[in-house]
Specification:
It contains eight helices and eleven strands. With about 350 residues, it is α+β, with helices and mostly antiparallel strands. The N and C termini lie far apart (about 170 Å). The relative contact order is 0.08.
Length: about 350
C-alpha cells in the first residue's frame, strides 16, 4: 500500500511540473499603489507589472498620460524596464504621483499597447485603482503657521539689460562728442579776411580784363568802378559809402584825421564823373576811361598802405558842399544840373 501511494504521488508530480513551466498565452497588466490613502500633497509610487509570452513587444504609457487623469499629477515617469525574458516576459514601470484634491481619486485602467509574436497589435488594460486623499486635520488648538517668504528667482545677466543699454548709449554719445571736439581742435582757424586795399586792387585788375568800355558798355564799366571804390572806402575808412551820396562821402572823409585833404578833391571828381555816366548818360572822352581806373588804383594804393584808421572826432554840423571844379576833360558845365538832380534823387 505505501508503495502504490508513492507511485501515485510521483505520477502527479510529473504531470504538474510541465504545467508550471508553461508560459502565459496572453498579456496581463496589473497596477498597484504603494498605499491607498495619503494626505494632500504627499507623494507615492504607482507600479505597473506586465507579463507576456516571449516575443511580445510592449510599449509603455505615453509621456504625460497620467497628468491627463483628473485629480492626479505625475512627478516622475520611469521607463518600462524588462525584469525577465524567460520563461515568460516580465516588465515593470513606475510612476511617482501626487494629488492636491481631497477625497477619493479614481485611477481608471491604464492602456498598454503590445504587438504579439505573430505581428498582431492589441491593448492590455490594468485594473482600476482608488486613492483616498485626506486633508490636513485642523484643530482649535492648532496655531496658524507663518506665511512663507516668496521664493526669489536667481538673477542672471539678462536681468540687467537696461543697464547694458544705458552704458552702450552713453559710450556712443561720448564717442560722438569726443570726435567732434577733436575735429574742432585739429581744424585750423579760418584765415583772416584780406585787407580792403588788396581786395580792391584784385577787383580793379579783374575789371580791367573785362574790357567793358571797349565793348561800348560804358555805364557798366563806371558802375563797377564806383562799386569797387565805395566798398574800399567802407572797408578802409569805415564809412557807409554804399548808402551815401557823393557829397556825403566827401564830407564824412574830410572829418577824419587819417584822410589827406588833398585827396578829397580828386575823390569827389571821380565819383561825380561816375554819377554823370550812370544818371545823366554822359559820354566822357575815351581817354578818361582808363585814366579813371588808374586814378582809383593809385588812390587805393596810397591810402591802403597807411596805418589803421584812428577814432573819429565828435560829429559836427555838416558844412555846405564846396563848389567842385570839373577837370578839363570832364563834361561841360551844362551837365551840372543833371548831376544835382541825380544826387538829390539818390539822397
Amino acid at each position: 500500500m505505501p508503495q502504490r501511494l508513492f507511485l501515485l504521488l510521483l505520477l502527479l508530480a510529473n504531470q504538474l511540473l510541465p504545467a508550471q513551466q508553461a508560459t502565459n498565452d496572453r498579456v496581463l497588466a496589473r497596477a498597484e499603489l504603494a498605499t491607498n490613502s495619503i494626505e494632500i500633497g504627499d507623494q507615492l509610487w504607482l507600479e505597473v507589472s506586465i507579463s507576456a509570452p516571449p516575443g511580445t513587444t510592449v510599449s509603455g504609457l505615453p509621456a504625460g498620460y497620467l497628468n491627463t487623469l483628473p485629480g492626479l499629477e505625475a512627478l516622475q515617469e520611469k521607463d518600462l524596464n524588462t525584469v525577465a525574458k524567460t520563461p515568460e516576459l516580465l516588465l515593470q514601470q513606475r510612476f511617482l504621483v501626487t494629488s492636491f484634491d481631497t477625497g477619493y481619486i479614481a485611477i481608471p485602467p491604464l492602456p498598454y499597447v503590445f504587438q504579439a509574436a505573430n505581428g498582431q497589435l492589441d491593448t492590455a488594460f490594468t485594473n482600476d485603482l482608488l486613492l483616498h486623499v485626506r486633508a490636513f486635520p485642523v484643530g482649535e488648538d492648532d496655531e496658524l503657521r507663518p506665511i512663507k517668504p516668496i521664493i526669489e528667482e536667481p538673477l542672471n545677466w539678462l536681468d540687467f539689460w537696461p543697464l547694458y543699454l544705458a552704458i552702450a548709449l552713453g559710450a556712443i554719445g561720448y564717442t560722438v562728442w569726443f570726435n567732434r571736439k577733436r575735429r574742432q581742435r585739429l581744424a585750423p582757424p579760418p584765415p583772416p579776411p584780406p585787407p580792403a586795399h588788396v581786395v580792391a586792387i584784385r577787383e580793379l585788375d579783374e575789371l580791367e580784363k573785362k574790357e567793358l568800355w571797349q565793348q561800348e558798355r560804358t555805364k557798366d564799366y563806371y558802375s563797377e568802378l564806383t562799386r569797387i571804390l565805395r566798398e574800399y572806402l567802407e572797408g578802409r575808412f569805415d564809412v557807409q559809402a554804399m548808402e551815401m551820396t557823393t557829397r556825403q562821402i566827401t564830407t564824412a572823409l574830410e572829418r577824419r584825421m587819417d584822410f589827406a585833404q588833398e585827396q578829397s578833391s580828386e575823390l569827389s571828381q571821380l565819383l561825380q564823373l561816375s554819377d554823370l555816366v550812370k544818371f545823366a548818360k554822359a559820354r566822357p572822352a575815351v581817354e578818361l576811361h582808363a585814366e579813371g581806373l588808374r586814378r582809383v588804383r593809385e588812390f587805393v594804393q596810397e591810402t591802403g598802405e597807411r596805418a589803421a584808421p584812428a577814432a573819429e572826432p565828435a560829429p559836427v554840423a555838416v558844412p555846405a558842399p564846396p563848389t567842385v571844379v570839373a577837370p578839363a576833360s570832364a563834361p561841360t558845365a551844362a551837365s551840372e544840373p543833371a548831376i544835382a538832380n541825380a544826387q538829390s534823387e539818390e539822397e
